[in-house]
Amino acid sequence: MFVALEGVDTSGKSTQIALLKEAYPNALFTKEPGGTSLGQALRQKVLHEHLSPATQFLLFLADRALHLEEVLKPNAHKLIFSDRSLISGLAYAPYPLEQALELHRAHGLLDMLPGCVFLLKLQPKALKERLHAKTHDFIESRGLEFLERTQERCEQACQLLGVYTYILDASQPPKNLQQEILDRLRATPGF
């Protein structure tokens, strides 16, 4: 099964991935962007250089194509956990969701959808507090309103794709959130 952890920056995806590695040591862990060597280079470029939103989207699209071919499809028989997926690709896109989805479809990037998505959602107050507590990359520097809108688009993208989605309160303590994820994983059909 392919499981994606989604949410805006500071929602705790990386923390939960680290905890899932302890619970599922034999699973494959990956991320988008950055699950391939090219993806790692693209990630650094996008997060640390000023690029237009359209350029960022197209670089992420290229990364997703390579990630699908090199990581996801060859390991489809395994349990895969991914820090982000095409859900984020749609949510962060500088286009309407349907248009971003069509660009993915046109390039064959809908061949392997997550079987289950955990969307870690923050209330505006918690998101604001977490953003103020860290330095920002170029995407985070777009501000609170951009991230709130992106968070809503993540939810809309899950609905648009019809993927099995759990929306979780990301402001709870990490161990509590981990337990909720583990409990819901065990209850997920096909897991």
UniProtKB/TrEMBL annotation:
Its EC number is 2.7.4.9. Keywords: ATP-binding, Kinase, Nucleotide biosynthesis, Nucleotide-binding, Transferase. ATP binds at residues 7-14. Coiled coil: none annotated. It catalyses: dTMP + ATP = dTDP + ADP. GO terms for molecular function: kinase activity. It is an enzyme of class 2 (transferase). Phosphorylation of dTMP to form dTDP in both de novo and salvage pathways of dTTP synthesis. This is Thymidylate kinase. It comes from Helicobacter gastrocanis.
